[in-house]
């Protein structure tokens, strides 16, 4: 254990979060997402896991150390519900609440169509698969910066 570090963050996850640079994308995936095959196409090239956590719990732990990008509209994205892109399922509402708590902006996650989400995910830095079993528990987080005075 380390002081000040969320115990839900594994050494591998911390390594990836630290290695990512400004603008890099991180995929948070539910259990139904093709995480292993998509992860092979990412910069990391291998899948990371936070198996015993919901999507909101994983995002909460990640945002305890990862700043979100403040320069772009797509600092956070959610996979849209097929056939009803405006629908925001409870799993996505929970993650939005976590983002709101950590980020402090009134900005909302953007929606990304399912296959476009897969395309973006393949270009990401890494994929973390959670234990989230609810559908549409898939998110993209874009790393921001920490200023010199922070």
From TrEMBL:
Task: Provide the reaction this enzyme catalyses.
Answer: alpha-L-fucose = beta-L-fucose; beta-D-ribopyranose = beta-D-ribofuranose
Q: Which domain of life is it from?
A: Bacteria
Q: Which Gene3D superfamilies match?
A: RbsD-like domain (3.40.1650.10)
**Which GO molecular function terms does the record list?**
D-ribose pyranase activity; fucose binding; L-fucose mutarotase activity
The biological processes this protein is annotated with in GO are: fucose metabolic process
* Enzyme class at the top of the EC tree: isomerase
> What Enzyme Commission number(s) does the record list for this chain?
5.1.3.-
Write the record's keywords in alphabetical order, separated by commas.
Isomerase
Q: Which Pfam families match?
A: RbsD_FucU
What is the name of this protein? Answer: Fucose dissimilation pathway protein FucU
Tell me the organism. Rubellimicrobium thermophilum DSM 16684
């Amino acid at each position: 254990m380390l002081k000040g570090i969320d115990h839900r963050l594994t050494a591998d996850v911390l390594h990836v979060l630290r290695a990512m640079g400004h603008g890099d994308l991180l995929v948070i995936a539910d259990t139904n997402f093709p995480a292993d095959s998509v992860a092979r196409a990412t910069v990391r090239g291998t899948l990371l896991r936070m198996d015993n956590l919901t999507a909101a719990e994983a995002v909460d732990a990640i945002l305890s150390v990862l700043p979100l990008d403040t320069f772009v509209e797509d600092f956070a994205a959610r996979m849209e519900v097929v056939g009803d892109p405006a629908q925001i399922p409870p799993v996505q509402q929970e993650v939005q609440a976590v983002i709101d708590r950590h980020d402090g902006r009134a900005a909302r996650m953007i929606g990304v169509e399912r296959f476009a989400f897969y395309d973006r995910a393949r270009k990401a830095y890494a994929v973390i698969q959670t234990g989230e079993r609810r559908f549409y528990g898939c998110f993209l987080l874009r790393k921001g910066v920490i200023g010199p005075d922070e």
